Amino acid sequence: MKKYLILLIIASLACNCKSKSSINSNAKETNSNTHSENKSEDNTIYFKATGNEPFWELKIGKEQIIFTSLIKGNESTVFSTVKPSRAMDANLKTYNVKNEKSSAVISIQQIECQNSMSGLISPYKVSIEIKNNTDSNAQKIDGCGKYITDYRLHDIWVLEELNGYKVFISDFQKELPRIEIHAEENRFMGFGGCNSINGSLFFEKDLLRFNNITSTLMACPENNKEDQFVKALQSTTTYSIKDNRLTLSNPSGKLLIFKKVD
Can you point out the beta strands (E) in the chain? Predict the structure, then answer.
């Protein structure tokens, strides 16, 4: 009898250990999947918009356009991302998308837009006409949105090359030019090679501009290349990041190459 009880206790302990191990394993797997999904979303979603009455949310990514809402029949709809058509006389993009259940026309215009409930100001107005394939009429809704500036830009970058040539401290004054980019706030600050500089960022998918650049008014030596640096910065339209290097370019070619230092 004692031997039977001992065997029963051992079996029960083994079962409990296995159950706990399975739970911990499942929890780890769930956390890992959640982290992976969040990381994936951060890497792919580049535009977000919301609207009210009824509430809706739009996310545009490299592969998918995700629309969620309180609209009956369109609570959660996923479309494949397509290349938008562009207006000739305004910053207006239009996406025509469809899947097996519905279709939508999404228009994104660069114009100041105020959320009807929160009062928050966004730089883009978004209009959507969405229709189930079984319906005859489309639902028309409006809201506001913004592009999500590439988080990889958020860093301190020190200049290495200017207009195709390697730069040296002797080309400037005491130290090399640098920029510190604050991606969430779409602004930057730094040192131009002689004066302190700051300004704002204009970011859209595949587009980056450094705008409203201002600087202190310190007199600079004639051989200082700060003017060339600032002009190149103002001429930037695109960028790439690879091997801790930020390359700024325009249709004419590479303008500036920076090295990440923080």
Answer: 45-51, 56-61, 64-69, 76-80, 85-86, 92-98, 102-114, 121-132, 139-147, 156-162, 165-166, 178-182, 187-191, 196-204, 207-215, 238-242, 245-250, 253-260
4 pLDDT higher than 90: no
Task: Report H helices in 144-196.
Answer: none
Q: C-alpha distances in angstroms, 193 versus 131, 141, 221, 244? A: 56, 49, 11, 21
Full-prediction pTM beyond 0.85? no
Judge if 48 and 118 occupy the same domain.
yes
Q: Is 72 helix (H, G, I), strand (E, B) or coil?
A: coil
Do 105 and 186 sit in the same domain of this protein? no
Q: Round to whole Å and give the CA distance between 46 and 123.
A: 14
pLDDT-based confidence at residue 19 (cuts at 50, 70, 90): very low
Domain region containing 247: 151-260
